[in-house]
């Protein structure tokens, strides 16, 4: 229907006024977006949360003509021509004299005269650039001069043989195409890059401007592409198995269940009800096994409300898989196949042939003080309390009858004075404070010196010093470290001496006392305890037995003998669990699952002594297992961590497009955001004082 023509009078004037205000509001919105882009590295970057304190936007833009100008400029970016060639196509298929259209980002322009300019354009992948000559077309030349560097453009021009270089200093991370150049015929500006943003490969933008860091840092963009390639290879390898794995998505809106980690809750408008974001797809994938799905996988988004560190995010991706009628051996074989394919395809490096090495939890903890040891640099831990004099043990620990262990740090320069200086600096630093303040006693430090009596081991006494030399085989200048601990079974992921071993090694590498280890050393850590003493800092499963599942409560006992221990000595039972570790990083963990509903309920009720209300949270799983669920096993690889290890990155943030900070915040978008009273009321919530 056509609108009626406006008549003069109050109604017509009001309509015109309303239209004018609408145009002004559009202009204000556009102007605000322009202001948000004006970020200068030469001054403090603006905090966008302060925009609320600005004057009303209608005071910043008053002209309908300005609105028309903005919309007119926008039209040229709506109807821009399609590219005829990529930059690679130009090299392979374009001939001198061909007219081409390319898309990309303008570089900094060099004006040789009023009518002659040179500028390089970088392709959409930001990997290559080519030189543009502007001289022939007056209109195009003026348009070029009005466009700022780093702006996205479409260019039409004629290919010609390159005549020379402008001598402009180019970004070292972008490959120049020097065999061709393009004579500019027309240019379409597609958006404007603000002139007051300084962007170079060396610019480090704060987390609020992650998009600018991604744009300026090629290594970040390449990490994301590498991640995409790795995902494709994993998918192909799993789907090429016989029988193939099926990729199946499981829900993200789950329910709160006591698996072992803290959850994120999602309130609903239904009073008193909330979803929980999944810690993992564990229960869903076990239900899939009961559903007759033989092999499942997915790149699953998981959420855990836990303390953060360099290799941990509140939301993360894991390569999750499960196999029916399978054992842990079957799962480990599949994962080794995937790992070999990833390393050989993307890193041109294949792990050593044959099955990956295996180390039991007990051996890993006793030899390296960690359940995810980096075995490349040696420094194995040895128990020594049985050879040490009692007075020496009493000097290094207040414990009665402790276990005393030691390791040797080889120092390649064989200079005791440098070794002593190194260890003194470390223990006096903040990094050494936690080891000095160990309530079980600080480390005992000895520098092996062939020029001193008993080679610097006088406190050991003659006999003990001789035995220590036989066991540790130190060289001149090596460091010997002793540490006492309680005489109790291993629990948790590391011992104080294991932590000190790792910290001293990397400090020695930084201090040029040791060479950094190279290569990738894969191993499986197996035979974990099925249950561990409850950690008061972790939610566990909320049982009253003082025990929690070491990994999760669905893990099966390793053997028939371990099944027998469930009711007599559950703390001694071994789990059929396996962790994949490389270079001191846990890539993932898996297990054979309890597939019998009756046994699963025994673990909940009799072993963990969970209250009936908490057991009821798992009723869906128990019902699925009761329906003749077959034996099954699976694993989850931390995909973010896997990519970081492959690329040698210290933090998973370097392989995630939009990571959270150490406080779990996305400061770019401002999440988590404060809930208003109105929003709280919508979900029947209120804040406690």
From TrEMBL:
Record protein name field: Aspartyl-tRNA synthetase
Domain Aminoacyl-transfer RNA synthetases class-II family profile stretches: 230-672
GO cellular component, one term: mitochondrion
One GO term of the biological process aspect: aspartyl-tRNA aminoacylation
Matches recorded under InterPro entries: Aa-tRNA-synt_II (IPR004364), aa-tRNA-synth_II (IPR006195), aa-tRNA-synth_II/BPL/LPL (IPR045864), Asp-tRNA-ligase_1 (IPR004524), Asp/Asn-tRNA-synth_IIb (IPR002312), GAD-like_sf (IPR004115), NA-bd_OB-fold (IPR012340)
Record carries keyword Zinc-finger: no
Keyword terms: Aminoacyl-tRNA synthetase, ATP-binding, Ligase, Nucleotide-binding, Protein biosynthesis
GO molecular function: aspartate-tRNA ligase activity; ATP binding
PANTHER family: ASPARTATE--TRNA LIGASE, MITOCHONDRIAL, ASPARTYL/LYSYL-TRNA SYNTHETASE
Similarity field: Belongs to the class-II aminoacyl-tRNA synthetase family. Type 1 subfamily.
């Amino acid at each position: 229907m056509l609108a009626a023509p406006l008549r003069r009078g109050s109604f017509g004037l009001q309509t015109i006024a309303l239209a004018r205000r609408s145009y002004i509001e559009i202009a204000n919105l556009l102007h605000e977006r322009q202001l948000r882009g004006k970020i200068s590295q030469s001054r403090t970057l603006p905090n966008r949360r302060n925009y609320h304190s600005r004057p009303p936007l209608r005071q910043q833009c008053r002209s309908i003509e300005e609105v028309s100008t903005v919309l007119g400029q926008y039209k040229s970016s709506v109807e821009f021509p399609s590219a005829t060639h990529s930059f690679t196509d130009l090299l392979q298929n374009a001939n001198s004299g061909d007219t081409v259209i390319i898309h990309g980002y303008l570089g900094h322009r060099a004006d040789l005269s009023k009518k002659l300019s040179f500028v390089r354009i970088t392709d959409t992948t930001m990997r290559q650039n080519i030189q543009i000559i502007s001289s022939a077309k007056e209109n195009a030349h003026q348009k070029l001069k009005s466009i700022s560097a780093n702006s996205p453009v479409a260019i039409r021009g004629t290919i010609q043989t390159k005549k020379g270089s402008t001598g402009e200093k180019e970004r070292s991370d972008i490959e120049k195409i020097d065999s061709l150049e393009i004579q500019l015929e027309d240019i379409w500006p597609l958006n404007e890059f603000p002139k007051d943003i300084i962007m170079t490969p060396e610019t480090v933008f704060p987390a609020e401007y992650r998009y600018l860091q991604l744009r300026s840092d090629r290594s970040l963009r390449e990490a994301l592409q590498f991640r995409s390639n790795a995902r494709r290879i994993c998918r192909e390898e799993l789907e090429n198995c016989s029988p193939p794995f099926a990729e199946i998505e499981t829900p993200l809106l789950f329910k709160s269940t006591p698996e072992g980690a803290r959850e994120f809750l999602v309130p609903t408008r239904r009073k008193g009800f909330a979803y929980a974001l999944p810690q993992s797809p564990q229960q869903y994938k076990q239900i899939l096994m009961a559903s007759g799905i033989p092999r499942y996988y997915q790149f699953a988004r998981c959420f855990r409300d836990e303390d953060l560190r360099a290799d941990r995010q509140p939301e993360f991706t894991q390569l999750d898989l499960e196999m029916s009628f399978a054992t842990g051996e079957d799962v480990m074989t599949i994962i080794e196949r995937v790992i070999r394919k990833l390393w050989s395809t993307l890193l041109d490096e294949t792990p050593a042939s044959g099955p990956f090495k295996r180390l039991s939890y007990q051996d890993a903890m006793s030899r390296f003080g960690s359940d995810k040891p980096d075995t490349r640099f040696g420094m194995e831990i040895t128990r020594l309390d049985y050879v040490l004099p009692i007075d020496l043990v009493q000097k290094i620990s207040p414990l009665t009858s402790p276990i005393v262990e030691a390791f040797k740090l080889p120092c390649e320069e064989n200079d005791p004075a440098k070794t002593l200086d190194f260890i003194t600096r470390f223990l006096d630093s903040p990094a050494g404070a936690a080891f000095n303040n160990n309530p079980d006693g600080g480390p005992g430090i000895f520098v092996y010196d062939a020029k001193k009596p008993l080679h610097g081991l006088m406190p050991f006494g003659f006999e003990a010093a001789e035995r220590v030399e036989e066991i540790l085989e130190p060289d001149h200048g090596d460091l010997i470290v002793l540490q006492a601990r309680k005489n109790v079974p291993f629990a948790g992921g590391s011992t104080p001496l294991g932590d000190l071993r790792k910290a001293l090694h990397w400090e020695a590498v930084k201090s040029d006392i040791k060479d950094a280890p190279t290569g990738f050393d894969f191993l499986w850590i197996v035979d974990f305890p099925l249950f561990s003493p409850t950690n008061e800092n972790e939610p566990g499963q909320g049982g009253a037995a003082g025990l929690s599942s070491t990994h999760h409560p669905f893990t099966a006992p390793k053997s028939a003998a371990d099944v027998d221990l469930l009711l007599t000595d559950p703390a001694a039972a071994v789990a059929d669990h396996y962790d994949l570790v490389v270079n001191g990083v846990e890539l993932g963990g898996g297990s054979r699952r309890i597939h019998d509903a009756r046994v699963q309920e025994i673990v909940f009720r009799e072993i963990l002594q969970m209250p009936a209300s908490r057991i009821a949270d798992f009723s869906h799983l128990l019902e699925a297992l009761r329906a003749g669920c077959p034996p099954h096993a699976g694993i989850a690889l931390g995909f973010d961590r896997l990519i970081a290890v492959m690329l040698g990155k210290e933090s998973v943030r370097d392989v995630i497009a939009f990571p959270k900070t150490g406080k779990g915040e996305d400061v770019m978008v401002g999440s988590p955001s404060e809930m208003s009273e109105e929003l709280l009321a919508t979900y029947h919530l209120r804040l406690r004082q």
